[in-house]
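Hypothesis: this fold can be encoded by more than one sequence.
Test: take the structure tokens below, design a sequence, compare later.
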């Protein structure tokens, strides 16, 4: 069947199905966002992959960072400013682990109510703790570099009081920005018109006011990332130059510089592996807002993959605790010692005390404070 359409003096014969298609398209584009729906994406198999990956990272990160916090809170006293930053980094990683179920549910169910909950609460908390981790990694590197520049620890920034103040200000600033985003999201939340089944982005749920605040928050986050990246690279390069000069002069400080350079290299490596790919994709994704379907889908999958890589940071940070904190290593050694002591008591009860007498020769003072 065809329908006669008049345009000026011309008369055209247009199929009815085509007319219906263009009418539906014009109605949808007038009531929805300018971004295309792009069909039903993400694909089900990709959602299953992300669900499995996030679930494994969640369990591993929760276990490692829960154990780390337990060791820190029960034994490692904050007598050094680096210990304060390490505790805050462990807390940020633990809270980031607790945010992962929101992201797991988003990928597992792919329903609009879960997407709304994730975009209003899960995503802000997720990125709050991610950038808290980034900042505390920068503070740890700065503290190690200050130990090289001021080995006697006389500078104010090397005091424990300064570490507590910097940590508190960091959390307050991040919480203020996140709280403003959450409140505005709840106040200006609109019923999204004609959401397609394949919509998977929080951008489609944002009001105009929220999108403007999002740009401000995103610019602030990008500045944080770039500053910490530049600082880490500068500290590593400066430490390497100092080490090369000390080795040429064959001074006694070269061994300490080797250890400092190794520790900062670990920080730089973890930071670059986890956070650089995400920001290389996130910046164009947030700023350019690709209008085409193919570009939008490609950026979406790249962003999701790099977010999964950035979350792996919570599994790598315990290596930082082990390298940077003597008290953390001592607590782990003490736990191994006490565990072997408990096993020795059981063996002593079964074998008449021989094992107990053997382990009692160990100097307990080196383990206990």
């Amino acid at each position: 069947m065809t329908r006669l359409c008049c345009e000026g003096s011309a008369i055209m014969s247009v199929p009815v199905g085509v007319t219906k298609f263009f009418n539906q398209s014009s109605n949808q584009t007038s009531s929805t966002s300018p971004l295309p729906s792009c069909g039903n994406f993400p694909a089900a198999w990709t959602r299953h992959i992300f669900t499995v990956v996030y679930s494994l990272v969640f369990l591993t990160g929760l276990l490692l960072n829960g154990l780390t916090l337990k060791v820190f809170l029960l034994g490692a006293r904050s007598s050094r400013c680096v210990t304060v930053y390490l505790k805050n980094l462990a807390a940020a990683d633990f809270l980031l682990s607790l945010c992962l179920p929101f992201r797991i549910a988003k990928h597992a169910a792919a329903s609009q109510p879960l997407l709304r909950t994730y975009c209003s609460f899960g995503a802000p908390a997720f990125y709050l703790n991610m950038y808290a981790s980034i900042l505390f990694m920068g503070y740890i590197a700065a503290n190690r570099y200050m130990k090289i520049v001021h080995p006697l620890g006389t500078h104010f920034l090397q005091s424990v009081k300064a570490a507590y103040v910097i940590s508190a200000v960091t959390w307050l600033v991040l919480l203020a920005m996140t709280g403003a985003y959450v409140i505005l999201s709840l106040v200006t939340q609109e019923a999204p018109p004609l959401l397609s089944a394949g919509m998977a982005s929080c951008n489609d749920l944002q009001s105009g006011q929220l999108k403007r605040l999002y740009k401000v928050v995103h610019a602030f986050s990008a500045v944080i990332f770039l500053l910490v990246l530049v600082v880490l690279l500068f500290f590593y390069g400066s430490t390497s130059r100092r080490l090369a000069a000390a080795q040429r002069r064959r001074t006694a400080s070269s061994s300490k510089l080797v250890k400092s350079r190794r520790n900062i290299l670990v920080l730089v490596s973890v930071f670059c592996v986890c956070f650089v790919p995400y920001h290389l994709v996130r910046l164009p994704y947030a700023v350019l807002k690709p209008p085409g379907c193919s570009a939008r889908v490609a950026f979406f999958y790249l962003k999701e993959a790099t977010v999964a890589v950035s979350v792996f940071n919570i599994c790598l940070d315990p290596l930082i605790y082990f390298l940077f904190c003597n008290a953390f290593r001592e607590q782990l050694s003490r736990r191994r010692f006490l565990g072997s002591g408990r096993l020795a008591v059981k063996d002593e009860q079964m074998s008449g005390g021989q094992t107990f007498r053997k382990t009692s020769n160990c100097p307990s003072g080196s383990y206990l404070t």
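The domain at 44-314 is CATH 1.20.1070.10 (Rhopdopsin 7-helix transmembrane proteins). Residues 208-249 form the longest helix (42 residues).
Hypothesis status: open.
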